[in-house]
Amino acid sequence: MLTDDERTAFLQSIARVRQRAAQALRQAQGADGPDGAVAFIAQLHRGLDTVAEQARATGPQPACQAGCAHCCHLRVEATEPEVFHIAQYLRAQPAEALADALSALQRHVATAALNPTNPARQACSFLVDDRCSIYSHRPAACRKAHSLSAQHCAEQSPTIPQNLRLLVDAEALMAGTALAYRDQPLPASAHELNAAVLAALKAPTAQARWYQGDAAALMPKDAQN
C-alpha cells in the first residue's frame, strides 16, 4: 500500500514517462510507420530490464533463476504492440520453429476454451524445457514478475513476496508507455498472451488494422459479430 506522497510521486512518474514516450513514439512512427510503432515497445522492455537490474543491486535478491518456471504457468497479459513484436519475431524463425509455436499456441487456446470461467493452470506456449523460447521478446508482465521466495511459488501461495520498489517503478513505465500509445491514438490494452499472439499470426492484416486504430484487431472474427 502506497502513502499519499508515494502515490503522488507514482502518478507524476507515469506522466513523465507518457510525455517522453509519446515524443519518441512519434519519431519512430515517422521513420518506419507501423513497424516503427511496434519496434518502439522494445524501449519499454529495456527500461524494465534496467529497473530490475537496479532493484537487484540495491534491494532484496529475487529467488528467480534459469529453469524456475512457476510463473510461466500463470495467465500473462500483453499489449498490442508487444503481441505484434512477438509475432514478427516468430515469423522470422525457421518454418519448423514457427509451425511448432503455432501448434503450441493452438493447444493452449483450445485447452483454455474448455472452461473459460475457470481455465486450467497450464504452461505458457513459449515455455520449452523450462526456458522461455521468446526471452528476448517476452512482454512487460514477464519482465516485471519476480519473487523473493521460490518456496512460495512452488506452493502456489496466494501471496508472493516481492520488491515493492521494483513493482512501482515497473508499473509507472508500463502505464506511461501504454498511455503514450493511446495518445497517437493506437490501442494498447491487455490481452491474454497466447490467444493474442495466435490471433496475430493467423491474421496478416491485424497489425495494419491496429495501426489504423482498430481496437478489435486481435479479436477472433466470431467475437466481433
UniProtKB/TrEMBL annotation:
Record InterPro entries: Puta_zinc/iron-chelating_dom (IPR005358)
Q: Which organism is it from?
A: Acidovorax facilis
The protein's name is YkgJ family cysteine cluster protein
A Pfam family:
CxxCxxCC
